[in-house]
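input
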Amino acid sequence: MVKYNAENLNDVFSVLSDPTRRSIIEQLSKGERSVQELAEPFDMSLPAISKHLKVLENAGLVTQRKEGRYRYYSIKPDSMDGACEWMDALKQLWSRFEDMFGCSKNKKQ
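output
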């Protein structure tokens, strides 16, 4: 049985629906980054990037640490486990539908 927090699952998908936040997650997948580093690829202010980071942090996807006047962000380990479990269960369900109805994404029409 898949166990996940439905509220957290909603938060994760809602947060990741924004392309800027997905891009930030992609950057953080390569390691810890400062706010300034995360802001470089975007045509927006540091306060705007900070708002995106706060949304990611509130959803539990990233953590921050402060060193002097700089803030560094990294992906929170295991933060997307619930979403991954839910998608795996959905994939298994879809596979059963494919088997039941003889349809496949690889099948040519």
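quick obs: The CA atoms of residues 27 and 68 lie 22 Å apart.
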